Amino acid sequence: MSYDTNSNTVPLLDNGKPSNPPTIANSHARRSRWKHRLMVAILLVESGCLAPRLAHGQFLSVFDSIFSSIQTDMGGALKAINQIKQQVQQLYQTTMWPLAALNQARGFVSNSINTYRNQMNQIFTTKFSSAVLPGPQQFETLLRSRLSTQIPSLQTSFTTNYGTVPQANAARPQDRVMMDMDDALSQQNLKTTLIADQAQDVTLQAANVMENEVATSTPGSNPYLTAEAQIVNLRCQAYMQKMLAAQLRQEAGRIAHDNALVKSRTNASGSVNSMVTGALTNH
After folding, report:
1. Is the dihedral of CA 125, 131, 132, 135 positive or negative?
2. What is the phi/psi pair of residue 14, to 5°?
3. If 171 and its partner were Cys, which of 86, 166, 200, 218 is the partner (CB 3.0–4.6 Å)?
4. What proportion of the chain, given as a percentage, has pLDDT over 70?
5. Is the pTM of this model over 0.70?
């Protein structure tokens, strides 16, 4: 390969091929291209940063619209509803359910409770002991215990104080049957009275609860209190019917016992008449 001595340029080899050396014009062209690319990149970055700002501003404007709608439209409606509610409440307190009258009624109930409840409780819970001997005293204590769990002890004490049915060879069969029936009816009614006393305590407790509720009741609760009172009244009626049934059984047993005595006397009189008639006939 020959070199031109008169030329100032020296050929370069690029992969075995001659190439021209870089010139000043080429350098300026390359720099301008890099600046163009850099400007494009900067514009892209700025656009990317500017987009979230615009979106954020749009979201803020949406929330501002929502808050404005709540404060103006819904807020005004809510204010009107609250005013109507206050007017209705004032109407109830002044016209339909006067607060002064309610407080007066509550005060009357509270004063009645404080005045009469303790006295009534003393009347219902006062114990009257009349027995003197140890056996009857125990029986009387069990009878007035007001606890249905004392029924087995009451039956044992009844047998101890009133005795048992005589043996078969100690009395006539008819007399033994009558004594057994009388004891059975007596024990049954005594047990019923013990259960009724306990039920009476439950009823009094329910009455106290209702009195306390009336003393602190609010307008509109009268139907519920009335229903509760009706339920307690039905319970009292059931207990009263149970006591009346026990009284009727006792009365029926007494009539049957008197009738049995009449029958026994009639049979005895017939036997005496037969004996007298036989004695006169033989003579």
Report:
1. negative
2. -125, 100
3. 166
4. 70
5. no
d(CA 180, CA 41): 120
Residue pair 143/154 in contact (Cβ under 8 Å)? The answer is: yes
Residue-wise pLDDT tens digits, 22-60? 455 555 556 666 666 666 666 555 555 544 544 445 555
Residue whose token pair is 């700025």 = 46
Q: Which residues of the chain are modeled with pLDDT < 50?
A: 1-19, 22, 50-51, 53-56
